[in-house]
Design brief:
By secondary structure, this protein is an alpha+beta fold. The chain contains two helices and two strands.
Length: 96
């Protein structure tokens, strides 16, 4: 049931963005960031989120990272290429 709830939330973000909210908000990029405790959970949610968009191929608006991929003692590491979208396995910098 948790997976279904998460997917419904991601679908809601997708539909919100598709209804020209980018014009109303005055922003050109909208990202939904998800941090997980475990790598396996991150991969599971990435796979599930492929279903959120109309194409079912994964959207680059959803970004995922595992908390083990950065160091809280060095907060700038959250900006490093630790983020992935459901679209592919490419690692992204948060400020791309």
């Amino acid at each position: 049931m948790k997976g279904k709830n998460f997917l419904n939330k991601m679908k809601a973000y997708w539909h919100y963005w598709q209804k020209d909210k980018q014009k109303q908000l005055g922003i050109s990029v909208f990202r939904v960031l998800t941090l997980t405790e475990k790598q396996g959970r991150k991969e599971s949610l990435r796979g599930l989120t492929k279903q959120a968009g109309d194409t079912k191929q994964g959207s680059e608006m959803f970004w995922f990272a595992c908390e083990k991929s950065f160091d809280l003692a060095k907060p700038k590491t959250i900006l490093d290429p630790i983020w992935q979208t459901p679209k592919n396995d490419t690692l992204h910098h948060l400020l791309e």
